[in-house]
Amino acid sequence: MADEIGVMAEGRIQQWDTPYNLYHRPTNRFVADFVGQGAFLRGKVLDDHRVQIELGVLDSAQPLVCCADCAGCVHGSPVDVLLRPDDLVHDDASPLRAEVVHKAFRGADILYTLRLAGGARVLSLVPSHHNHAIGERIGIRLDVSHVVAFQDAPPTYRPRCALRNGSSHDPWLAP
């Protein structure tokens, strides 16, 4: 790793940024898929700070902002929300349940693939002393400190709509 990394696709720089920002603040779906694991859940923009997904309402101190040509991210608009494995926490006390459909032991952790009630699949990174069986329904809760949502569209290199940290657009990035 370096202090800054460039992610390219089709001969164009998609994002030039720190490893942290590439993972937590990807500029588009390509970067989100390329850097780290995650899953997209359908969502709906509720207001400038909140997005509703199957697992509940995601809230952020930063407002939902869109790129200049991202007209699809208005209140009530459908979006795809990126959830990373660290955004879903195993919690036996939670009423929210998901079915274990796959697990990958990784030493200190197990990466679970979970099926939600609506059929969507998400990932959760859980300490390995929580060794659950395939088919078991386990308690989960959201622990999302950053929300990344893309306008409702097929996974192409379209503009990102995200809850951002207020950083300005980088002219070196692909549109």
Counting DSSP E segments of at least 2 residues, the number of strands comes to 14
CATH superfamily of the domain at 86-142: Nucleic acid-binding proteins
- Secondary-structure element series: EEHHEEEEEEEEEEEE
Q: Quaternary state, please?
A: single chain
Low-pLDDT segments, ≥5 res: 155-175
Describe this structure in words.
The protein has 175 residues and is mostly beta strands. Among the domains are: 1-36, no CATH class; 86-142, Nucleic acid-binding proteins (OB fold (Dihydrolipoamide Acetyltransferase, E2P), Beta Barrel), CATH 2.40.50.140. It contains two helices and 14 strands. The chain has helices at 19-24, 29-34; strands at residues 5-9, 12-17, 39-45, 50-53, 56-59, 64-66, 78-83, 88-90, 97-105, 109-115, 121-127, 137-142, 148-151, 160-163. The strands form three sheets. Strands 5-4-3-7-13-14-6 form a seven-stranded antiparallel beta sheet, with no helix packed on it. It has a five-stranded antiparallel beta sheet with strand order 8-12-9-10-11, with no helix packed on it. A two-stranded antiparallel ribbon has the order 1-2. The longest helix is centred in the first third of the chain and has 6 residues, at 19-24. The model is unreliable at 155-175 (pLDDT under 50).
Brief overview, please?
The chain is mainly beta. Helix content is about 5%, strand content about 45%.
